[in-house]
């Protein structure tokens, strides 16, 4: 039940020396403020880094060939080999738990520049020979037309899906590229789709300068035969590609007579493993934020406990009179605890409010940033659970801060308190 006299007494006690009260409350304010800001900053950094992965399937590994480093079955070390399209079926048959296996060939990029022309316009772009599954592993947004399908694969159709950067360099403004032809190293390909794509490596412009063609048409047009440049392999959701990676490599080593212990012959990049490391890093950062924020908050709580001890000392005679008039120990204890909790919650909620306002302002600034800005910091925020945890910490802290002063107050004998000047 609300007791006006009690709250008047609390406010009078806390405002008797308002400057001291403000300085004491600032410790709790600063502790909760730092805690929320650190957690929001950690979340913003996590969002920015994960945003850098784009929509790429993180349970994926990429695999390519390297020089063999050990002799095996009469074959020398130092030899080179190529993946074959038959390796794809072998992996699919012998390694359960895989969702997608996408062989890929590439012109441009690390394999050197290539010429793509249309009329008098010329450009150097990455050209990929792909299967339809690649769009599920490394998603792109089809802005017009369609992506490569299995009809294109089976018929070896010379069709192409081009990025916005390719359209800009090869076509005039307002021209519809669908149905038009481009020449890739002298071979005509008809444009069947255009796309936009979020960069996974921070280079948003270059990610729009790519061309996707059917794997079979690529192999036929550029004389790759059965050769596969590299593969993107994704595991099922209930599996980890990291756990299946060894089995996949064993199949390749068997097919190409590579020593089972030759760990350098098959190059790979395990995206899932890297993603787990990043997740672990942010869990650690969150733990540091809680640790630092809690220590700062603890110093504020100690300050409140000290000030409440001083308040009890100043009100010794008042407490003696109340005890002499019949006030119970619980009434005295409750009064001191209530004052402590009130001061803690008010200062703590002020810290939450100010930190939330700052986070809101930062988000507004980030929203106003250019859309193609590949920032490593995005949408700093604090989960609602954290707010409830903070409230629980504040209430608990207020109780702890007032507990010792309350015990001191009720241990004072009425007669001794009345003698105090």
Detailed description of the structure:
- With 421 residues, the chain is of the alpha+beta class.
- The protein folds into two domains: 4-54 and 276-419, no CATH class; 107-221, no CATH class.
- It contains 13 helices and 14 strands.
- It has helices spanning 4-15, 18-51, 85-94, 134-137, 150-155, 164-170, 215-221, 241-255, 271-314, 316-324, 329-367, 384-411, 414-419, and strands at 60-65, 83-84, 98-107, 116-118, 121-123, 126-130, 141-145, 159-163, 181-184, 187-196, 210-214, 227-228, 230-235, 266-270.
- The strands form two sheets. Strands 1, 3, 4, 5, 6, 7, 8, 9, 10, 11, 13 and 14 form a twelve-stranded mixed beta sheet that branches.
- It is elongated.
- It starts with a helix and ends with a helix.
- The model has no long low-confidence stretch (mean pLDDT 81).
Radius of gyration: 34 Å
Major β-sheet, in short? 12 strands, mixed
Number of helices: 13
> How helix-rich are the residues, as a percent range?
40-55%
Total strand segments: 14
**End-to-end span in angstroms?**
34 Å
Tally of domains? 2
Overall geometric form:
elongated
Q: How large a portion of the residues is in β-strands, by DSSP E?
A: 15-25%
Average pLDDT, rounded to a whole number, is 81
Poorly predicted runs: none
Taken in chain order, the helices and strands follow as HHEEHEEEEHEHEHEEEHEEHEHHHHH
Computed structural class = alpha+beta
Family: Belongs to the ABC-4 integral membrane protein family.
Keywords: Cell membrane, Membrane, Transmembrane, Transmembrane helix
GO cellular component, one term: plasma membrane
Organism: Aquimarina spongiae
């Amino acid at each position: 039940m609300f007791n006006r006299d009690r709250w008047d007494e609390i406010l009078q006690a806390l405002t008797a020396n308002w400057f001291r009260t403000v300085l004491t409350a600032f410790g709790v304010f600063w502790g909760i403020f730092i805690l929320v800001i650190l957690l929001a900053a950690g979340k913003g950094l996590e969002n920015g880094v994960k945003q850098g992965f784009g929509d790429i399937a993180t349970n994926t590994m990429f695999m390519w060939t390297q020089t063999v480093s050990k002799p095996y079955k009469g074959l020398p070390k130092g030899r080179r080999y190529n993946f074959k399209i038959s390796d794809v079926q072998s992996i699919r048959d012998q390694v359960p738990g895989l969702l997608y296996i996408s062989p890929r060939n590439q012109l441009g990029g690390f394999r050197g520049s290539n010429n793509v022309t249309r009329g008098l316009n010329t450009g150097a772009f990455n050209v990929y020979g792909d299967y339809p599954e690649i769009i599920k592993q490394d998603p792109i947004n089809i802005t017009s037309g369609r992506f490569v399908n299995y009809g294109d694969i089976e018929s070896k159709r010379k069709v192409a899906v081009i990025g916005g950067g390719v359209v800009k360099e090869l076509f005039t403004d307002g021209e519809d590229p669908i149905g038009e032809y481009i020449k890739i190293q002298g071979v005509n390909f008809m444009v069947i789709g255009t796309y936009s794509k979020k960069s996974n490596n921070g280079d948003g412009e270059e990610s729009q300068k790519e061309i996707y063609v059917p794997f079979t048409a690529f192999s036929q047009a550029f004389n790759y035969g059965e050769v596969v440049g590299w593969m993107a392999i994704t595991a099922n959701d209930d599996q980890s590609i990291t756990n299946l990676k060894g089995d996949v490599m064993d199949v390749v080593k068997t097919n190409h007579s590579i020593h089972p212990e030759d760990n350098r012959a098959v190059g790979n990049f395990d995206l899932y493993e890297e993603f787990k490391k990043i997740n672990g890093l942010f869990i650690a950062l969150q733990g540091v934020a809680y640790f630092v924020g809690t220590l700062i908050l603890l110093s504020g709580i100690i300050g409140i406990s000290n000030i409440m001890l001083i308040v009890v000392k100043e009100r010794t005679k008042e407490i003696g009179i109340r005890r002499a008039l019949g006030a119970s120990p619980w009434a005295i204890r409750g009064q001191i605890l209530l004052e402590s909790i009130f001061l803690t919650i008010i200062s703590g909620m002020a810290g939450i409010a100010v930190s939330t306002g700052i986070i809101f302002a930062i988000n507004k600034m980030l929203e106003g940033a250019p859309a193609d800005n590949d920032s490593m910091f995005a949408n700093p925020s604090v989960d609602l659970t954290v707010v409830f945890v903070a409230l629980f910490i504040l209430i608990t802290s207020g109780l702890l801060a007032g507990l010792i002063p309350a015990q001191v107050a009720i241990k004072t004998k009425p007669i001794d308190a009345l003698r105090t000047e």
